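Entry 14. Structure prediction run on the chain below.
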Amino acid sequence: MVLRLNTLTLSHFRSHRLARLALDGRPVALFGSNGAGKTNVLEAVSMFSPGRGLRRASALDMARRPEALGWKLTTELSSLGQLHEIETWSEDGAARQVRIDGKAAPQIALGRVARVLWLIPAMDRLWIEGADGRRRFLDRMTLSFEPDHAEATLAYEKAMRERNRLLKDMVREPSWYLALEAQMAEAGITIDRNRRRALAQLAEAQSGAQTAFPTADLDLIHNEAALPTSEDDLRTALAESRNRDLTAGRTLIGPHRADLIGTYADKQVLAKDCSTGEQKALLVSLILANARALAAAFGAAPLLLLDEVAAHLDPDRRAALYDEIAALGAQAWMTGTEKQLFSALGDRAQYFEVDEADGASDVLAS
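Output returned:
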């Protein structure tokens, strides 16, 4: 079984007035000068998954300037032996819409027909910056296994926003909190369970693989000694924490306080203390492990979006990455300033030059 885009059309998306690609299932290498719009193509592919895409941008920010009228992306997707026509678009900055096989669909439905993973330069500082970025990274991996994880996350965040508003207003009457804390407890336990299940799948995928990239041991920790493991216990913990939360003006216990800790397994060194090159290699290792686990769980390797990854790996690691992508059978989308960066792929890839001629960025077959 395969998962791949057969066609891709961008209309008034970012720098691209109109760009069309015809694809044959092989990995895709996009090359061209800086600013030509290579990452914009990867962002377009990321929009065939739930959420705000690899840049986490608003729908308005994705519209081509100066018109800013709206944008549209279309693809024919092969997924597990079936063909799907998918469209997603936004008009005048409104929330983006999705249509699958001619029928309106919620964004979460995209996660049931396609799985998309990405690694972009902005993630290179994952291990040394704030916990919120690591939570987003973990939740993207979790979402790749459990499309319904997005619903639990949204439900939890909505209830927590309402609870935080009460806390800031110094509301002390318990009855105002009961329903919100019940919602947070139900969604919060689901979030934590999904995350831990995803980490277990990643660990299994790493332990059984022969790879040129270092293994990363992952652990999920909380600001508290441990997050309660049942809805009743989390609901009780939220109630008991109200006085402390009132002082802080925000909720201090729950899955939103979790942090992902990575360790370079062979060296037993925390990822945050590793060299820049080692941190990058650990990220690549995790994305590949995620892809291997998905190939087993979903039935096909996911779409991989690897922005400028070739420029940050030495030639041996670069060749090893290409070999692993080929072995996975994944349609990986990669960007680089020069075609030569992908020479180790040979005829295992399809090559496109991204050019900004005519003031309207277009994608051309090489």
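The chain has a mean pLDDT of 93.
Filed with the rest of this week's runs.
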